[in-house]
């Protein structure tokens, strides 16, 4: 058909899912190589249906639950018979829209997918800011905000994991949008591999945003009749700034994404031995650390890296998932009961996706690692990546991990992944399927985790990737909490936790108190302040508490009791950012408020010190203006209105890195 209406142009009109090579010169949503070599894709509406309930995505993480509606829109490229189904899940309770895409080859010849975005969103305006969450190892999810300029911009990962460097969550907002004002749109991708989140501010002041699997190295063969499913994206729009958007994401993720094996229960306060011992430990030493922490209220002992194979440093042992009996005589069968006798649960660190060259597994199966046999391989932390795209490799590791899980009473694992993917080539796939390895790897990872979920329904899994290198909504479907960062410095953590909080709930943020000087920064902060920072997450300790003074131990005991008392308020309350740590360099404050606004916990940490400091009068948020609240059990009651509109006056702080917490309890009915 020849279009002669000169006012109609694909290059200008908003598109629900953009075409390729047929007149729209902006970002494409899908790129498909047809049998004749053409990449043209002209998508035409065919039909749509609406039904109650939420669509499911086979082998991929997805929001779930009752009270959803699904919209399916079918598009077709008439010349090639490529069919694209746009899926929309609508959850009115949380104002959440999810999106996914299925591509079916309805033609008679093979086609190759080079790009399949999970969503395309055309804003009919260009005057927006883009906010991304970026950084690196030990400084994840630092907030970056900039006005969109004309052209393409965005964030991505080609590291095989969602990455420390950029997070698959972005916000578009009006230039003056803040915590409580301005239109903003948050978009999260439920995917843990290579991703692309790209915006283009176009010539006529419109903006296109596409988000999905990164096209880098991606070429997926689709035979006639076959279907490819793109990972899910989740969108929340708030006309009133970031705080309501955050609250909706937090509730939706807690209630409709995470599959907690013990829903509604408080998670045990844990002690992890990594920063205390690294690889250098024996059974008695670990029992000593556990015993001391049990006295102070800890309930779960997590044995970190170093318990298996020949593993005295990071150069050997990965892949050999048998207990190192010179460190743990009698294996877990003998060791775990000693922990349980202390009244504690037991957890274990594993890194199933990896292998060291110096391991029995690699000596037996060198081709199980990703990589072309004729090229030298790139090492990361002295290790190679196992080919999780291969089912036989996964099955072998699965059986080995199950043997360990079956050998003792293990209620928790910390699933680590300590390097990026390189040498992405699989010995099990033909040349025309090598472009599938990155994605098949992620599908393999999800398949493994899903099997664990099915076979060990009570097992709690914490995700980890050199800290927060795979902190994404996809992983949260399998691992209800993720180690937020290898950086346990309380002051650095304020920024990391601030950025993380925009999308991800407090209950997902793995955070521990560690020893000083801090292992990553060398900074010394008081134990009180370290507790305040760690309490805004899953809460635990990562140090030898036996080395603390009696005074410090008393504080640790108090912190543990305090967390146990207020965990519901902290982890299920509404989270308010009271300051921006990137702008306010003097102090950082945040607040948790119970859904009925009868309780709140305010935390404030000072980040610098100077003479003649101005008084801090902090305006609180989320309280009921009509109610009166006691502060830390005070006789004096403060009006919710006064606390929010005039603020609470803090005492003067003296010394560096001080902290204070205010527990507010309403004494009057609404
Ligand atoms: C990663 C994790 C750490 C620790 C080490 C063990 O760096 O993030 O918490 O488990 O591995 O090797």
Structural description of this entry:
The protein is built from 12 helices and 35 strands. A hairpin with a 2-residue loop joins strand 7 and strand 8. The mean pLDDT is 97. Alpha-D-galactopyranose binds at residues 274, 304-305, 349, 416, 418, 464, 466-467, 483, 486.
Briefly summarize what is shown.
The protein is an alpha+beta fold and 670 residues long. It has twelve helices and 35 strands.
CATH topology of the largest domain, by name, is Beta-galactosidase, Chain A, domain 5
The CATH architecture of the largest domain: Distorted Sandwich
Count of domains: 3
Described by its quaternary structure, the protein is single chain
- Helix run count: 12
Biggest sheet details: 10 strands, antiparallel
Helix content: 10-25%
In whole angstroms, the N-to-C terminal distance is: 65 Å
Give the overall silhouette. Answer: globular
What's the CATH class label of the largest domain?
Mainly Beta
Main attributes of the structure:
single chain; 670 residues; alpha+beta; Beta-galactosidase, Chain A, domain 5; TIM Barrel; Immunoglobulin-like; 3 domains; ten-stranded antiparallel beta sheet; nine-stranded parallel beta sheet; 35 strands; 29% strand; globular; binds alpha-D-galactopyranose
List the SSEs and their pairings:
Elements: E1 30-33, E2 44-52, E3 69-77, E4 82-91, E5 96-105, E6 111-123, E7 128-136, E8 139-147, E9 151-157, E10 169-174, E11 184-189, E12 195-201, E13 207-213, E14 220-222, E15 227-229, E16 233-238, H1 242-256, E17 270-272, H2 274-277, H3 283-295, E18 300-303, H4 331-340, E19 345-350, E20 354-355, H5 360-364, E21 384-385, H6 391-406, E22 412-415, H7 437-455, E23 460-463, H8 473-476, E24 481-483, H9 490-501, E25 509-510, E26 512-514, H10 527-534, E27 540-542, H11 550-572, E28 574-577, E29 587-593, E30 599-606, E31 617-618, E32 628-631, E33 637-639, H12 640-645, E34 648-649, E35 659-666
Parallel strand pairs: 17-18, 17-27, 18-19, 19-22, 22-23, 23-24, 24-25, 26-27
Antiparallel strand pairs: 1-6, 2-3, 3-4, 4-5, 5-15, 5-16, 6-13, 6-14, 7-8, 7-10, 9-12, 10-11, 11-16, 12-13, 20-21, 28-29, 29-30, 30-35, 31-34, 32-33, 32-35
Bound molecules: alpha-D-galactopyranose.
The site of alpha-D-galactopyranose has 11 residues, from loops.
């Amino acid at each position: 058909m020849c279009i002669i209406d000169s006012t109609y142009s694909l290059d200008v009109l908003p598109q629900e899912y953009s075409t390729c090579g047929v007149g729209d010169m902006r970002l494409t949503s899908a790129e498909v190589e047809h049998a004749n070599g053409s990449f043209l894709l002209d998508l035409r509406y065919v039909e749509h249906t609406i039904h109650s309930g939420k669509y499911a995505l086979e082998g991929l993480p997805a929001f779930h639950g009752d009270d959803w509606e699904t919209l399916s829109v079918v598009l077709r490229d008439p010349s090639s018979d490529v069919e694209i189904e746009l899926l929309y899940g609508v959850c009115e309770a949380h104002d959440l829209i999810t999106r996914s895409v299925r591509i079916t080859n309805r033609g008679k010849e093979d086609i190759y997918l080079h790009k399949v975005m999970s969503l395309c969103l055309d804003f009919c305006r260009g005057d927006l800011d883009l906010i991304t969450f970026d950084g690196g190892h030990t400084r994840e999810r630092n907030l970056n905000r900039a006005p969109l300029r004309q052209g393409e911009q965005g964030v991505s990962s080609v590291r095989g994991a969602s990455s420390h460097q950029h997070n698959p969550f972005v916000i578009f907002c009006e230039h003056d949008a803040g915590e409580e004002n301005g239109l903003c749109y948050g978009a999260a991708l439920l995917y843990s591999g290579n991703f692309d989140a790209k915006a283009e501010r176009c010539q006529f002041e419109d903006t296109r945003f596409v988000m999905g699997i990164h096209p880098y190295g991606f070429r997926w063969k689709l035979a006639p009749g076959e279907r490819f499913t793109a990972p899910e994206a989740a969108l929340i729009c708030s006309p009133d700034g970031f705080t309501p958007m955050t609250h909706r994401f937090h509730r939706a993720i807690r209630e409709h994404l995470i599959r907690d094996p013990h829903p509604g229960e408080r998670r045990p306060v844990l002690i992890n031995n990594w920063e205390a011992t690294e690889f250098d430990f024996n059974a008695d030493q670990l029992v000593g650390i556990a015993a001391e922490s049990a006295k102070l209220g800890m309930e779960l002992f997590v044995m970190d890296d170093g318990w298996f194979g020949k593993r005295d440093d990071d150069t050997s042992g990965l892949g050999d998932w048998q207990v190192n009996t010179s460190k743990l005589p009698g294996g877990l069968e003998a060791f775990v009961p000693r922990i349980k006798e202390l009244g504690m649960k037991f957890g274990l660190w594993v890194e199933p996706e990896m292998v060291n060259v110096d391991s029995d597994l690699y000596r037996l199966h060198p081709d199980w690692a990703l990589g072309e046999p004729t090229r030298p391989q790139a090492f990361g932390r002295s290790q190679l990546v196992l080919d999780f795209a291969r089912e036989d490799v996964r099955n072998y590791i699965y059986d080995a991990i199950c043997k360990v899980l079956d050998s003792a009473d293990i209620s928790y694992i910390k699933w680590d992944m300590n390097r990026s993917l390189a040498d992405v080539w699989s010995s099990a796939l033909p040349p025309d399927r090598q472009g599938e390895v990155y994605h098949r790897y992620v599908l393999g990872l999800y398949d493994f985790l899903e099997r664990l979920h099915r076979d060990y329904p009570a097992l709690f899994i914490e995700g980890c990737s050199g800290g927060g290198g795979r902190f994404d909504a996809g992983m949260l479907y399998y691992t209800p909490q993720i180690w937020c960062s290898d950086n346990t410095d309380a002051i650095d953590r304020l920024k990391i936790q601030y950025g993380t909080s925009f999308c991800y709930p407090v209950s997902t943020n793995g955070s521990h108190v560690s020893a000083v000087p801090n292992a990553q920064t060398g900074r010394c902060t008081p134990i009180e302040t370290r507790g305040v920072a760690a309490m805004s997450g899953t809460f635990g300790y990562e140090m030898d508490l036996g080395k603390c003074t009696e005074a410090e131990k008393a504080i640790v005991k108090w912190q543990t009791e305090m967390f146990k008392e207020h965990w519901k308020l902290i982890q299920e309350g509404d989270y308010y950012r009271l300051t921006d740590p990137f702008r306010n360099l003097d102090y950082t404050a945040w607040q948790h408020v119970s859904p009925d606004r009868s309780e709140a916990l305010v935390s404030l940490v000072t980040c610098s010190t100077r003479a003649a400091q101005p008084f801090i009068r902090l305006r609180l948020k989320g309280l009921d203006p009509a109610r009166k609240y006691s502060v830390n059990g005070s006789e004096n009651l403060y009006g919710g209105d006064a606390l929010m509109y005039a603020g609470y006056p803090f005492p003067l702080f003296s010394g560096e890195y001080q902290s204070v917490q205010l527990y507010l309890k309403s004494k009057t009915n609404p």
